[in-house]
Design brief:
The protein has 246 residues and is of the alpha+beta class. The chain is 46% helix and 16% strand. Helix 7 (188-198) packs across helix 10 (233-242). The chain is elongated, with a radius of gyration of 21 Å. The two termini are 24 Å apart.
Length: 246
């Protein structure tokens, strides 16, 4: 299972704590490949994650590979503006890669908290970013952001960079996808109950259809909710659909 990578912080005498990107030794093999790709185009930092969904909006739940400084990542995880960020809003509107000199990870409020957070990203050397989203062959949706202090890339460099990321994702997406699924395998009956629940049937109606008691239906649905880490039937159905179980 892949983990969100941690960064390394060094404390210099008289200068407090300064954050730097995690070195390659602290990244998994795929993370090292993304880091190397970013450096070839002048980007010191990178973030690769799942595109946030309504039932899974959190930064920590979607981050796959990241070499941000530890203090910055923890601060962002705490505030968690990921699903409401300018980055996600922009990538919902266009599939075209884009470059920006503004902080993409803050929201649209432009209040003091947003300005402070944007300043923290800039202070870490993330003043310019290239961002885009890619679907893999299984239709999983990923977003990529490479950041650093550099000039805007020309159109051909953006195209080359995008294609290299596409090739790298294509070579490893099946391994990444393995981390996204139910904590336990659902039984055939649990899937049946979820499928009928998705069709709008009540527990009593499902019981009649499957020739079992309504108590048993409720038991199957509760078990499915636990395995899908869901708080109610609606969320369980949504996650089962995302995992292509229904």
């Amino acid at each position: 299972m892949f983990r969100v990578t941690e960064s390394i912080c060094h404390e210099e005498e008289g200068k407090g704590v300064s954050a730097v990107p995690v070195d390659d030794a602290g990244l998994c093999p795929l993370g090292r490949q993304f880091a190397a790709l970013g450096r070839r185009y002048g980007f010191d930092y990178f973030f690769v994650g799942n595109f946030p969904k309504a039932d899974k909006p959190e930064f920590s739940a979607n981050a796959l590979f990241c070499n941000w400084p530890l203090e910055l990542k923890e601060r962002y995880r705490t505030g968690d503006q990921f699903s409401a960020s300018k980055l996600v809003a922009r990538l919902k509107q266009s599939i075209v890669p884009f470059q920006s000199a503004e902080c993409l990870f803050v929201g649209e409020r432009n209040d003091e908290a947003d300005h402070d957070l944007a300043g923290a990203f800039a202070a870490c050397g993330m003043g310019f970013s290239l961002a885009f989203a890619i679907h893999d062959c299984a239709l999983a949706h990923y977003l990529f952001v490479f950041s650093g202090e550099r000039e805007e890339l020309d159109r051909q460099d953006v195209a080359n960079f995008y294609f290299e990321c596409l090739e790298l994702l294509d070579s490893c997406s099946s391994r990444i996808a393995q981390r996204d699924g139910p904590r336990e395998k659902l039984s055939a009956r649990e899937i049946e109950c979820l499928r009928w629940s998705a069709a709008g049937k009540s527990s009593d109606e499902i019981a009649i259809i499957l020739s079992i008691s309504s108590h048993t239906v409720v038991s199957y649905l509760k078990s499915a909710m636990r395995k899908l880490d869901s708080v109610n039937r609606m969320q369980a159905v949504a996650r089962a659909c995302r995992f292509r179980l229904l």
